[in-house]
Amino acid sequence: MTTVRIPAGWPATEEQARAVQDRLRAQVVLDEPGPPPGTGHVTGVDVAYDDERDVVAAAAVVLDAATLEVVAQATAVGRISFPYVPGLLAFREIPTVLAALDALPCPPGLVVCDGYGLAHPRRFGLAGHLGVLTGLPTIGVAKNPFTFTYADPATPRGSTSPLLADTEEVGRALRTRDAVKPVFVSVGHRVTLDNACAHTLVLTPKYRLPETTRRADALCRKALREAAAPRKPLADRAAADPTRSWGRTLFERQSDPVTWAGRVLRAAALGQRRTPEIEAALEFAGDRDRWSHGREVFELVRRGWADEEQFTPEQRIVFRLAELVGKVAHNEAGPPPFFDHHAGWQIGPLAWRLAAAADPAVRDRIAVALGERPPEPLDG
DNA sequence: GCGACAG
DNA sequence: ATCTTGTCGC
């Protein structure tokens, strides 16, 4: 497995990313038929994320197009290079996908992407982007219609209907299993739409999604599991950390957990350098109307301390508290899926770790914000 | 102006 | 994409 760095000059803003798309899309080749279905190699690529740990894992799995047996596979891990923005997915996935493709011991043949090619607001989705950067023939097979419209294809497998941006056919809804929701096929690079659909049908003898996608999905999840630091079971951590049960009961006694978390954060941040992320979290905790956006606050704070090395241990604790404010608020008022409900339990122990190392005035202030002190002096 | 919106 | 419990089906 290879490790990826974010490429130099990689777009940092949405505006830059859109400019890159506008520049590169002229290089897409649409007038080649592409490899005949059922011959040579077909390669699936997919990506899995752990946003909390800022880890991304990609996989490329090469299948024999005739037998659908795995011929070769490779993975790569790296840091997340771009947030998820509809229309800019490629900037989040491509660096790691390229590394996985590079690590393959054989030519990939046709590359099947999890997403779109031509069917894209600027006609340059993930599959087209990957095709232009590698020169390989690519297609996109997506699970959802994005912003496009389509009529439901007829019931039997193999039926299609045009995927429309207004009246322009940008792809096709293709039924790969009888009476099951279609997939959405579009051209990436150097393949026609007819051929892309034919490939997709060859790749779906048993399931709705292409074997390439299924294999790559399973492999990148596994790579992600192995890349993320293995964690001890919950019970072990509870035994090793007596502050945990105190943190739990303290949190569960709060009738207004978000406001409480905000007070704790304010006390903890006192006297420390305030970053914009901390300011935002503090302001947020005081505004009940915004709690449903807790997840965004979490993500903002998480991005804010991406360069962990530049912060002191105390500042890192403040950042973690700010993240927890976002998590707790999201669990309290946001839509599912929720963060794990243990999140709030960490607030007390974390804040007290800071208090224990601080001077008596700060310690008192944190104790007041928490509402109590731990039953016995905690070290760490 | 606001929401929806591939993964 | 990710979080999640049970439930349905081959």
UniProtKB/TrEMBL annotation:
Protein's UniProt keywords contain Methyltransferase: no
The protein's required cofactors: Mg(2+)
EC number: 3.1.21.7
Superkingdom in the source lineage: Bacteria
InterPro entries for this protein: Endonuclease-V (IPR007581)
Enzyme class: hydrolase
Site description Interaction with target DNA, residues in chain: Y84
Signal sequence segment: none
Location(s) in or outside the cell: Cytoplasm
Summary of the function given for this chain in its UniProt record: DNA repair enzyme involved in the repair of deaminated bases. Selectively cleaves double-stranded DNA at the second phosphodiester bond 3' to a deoxyinosine leaving behind the intact lesion on the nicked DNA.
Protein family (similarity comment): Belongs to the endonuclease V family.
UniProt protein name: Endonuclease V
Annotated organism of origin: Streptomyces longisporus
Gene this protein is translated from: nfi
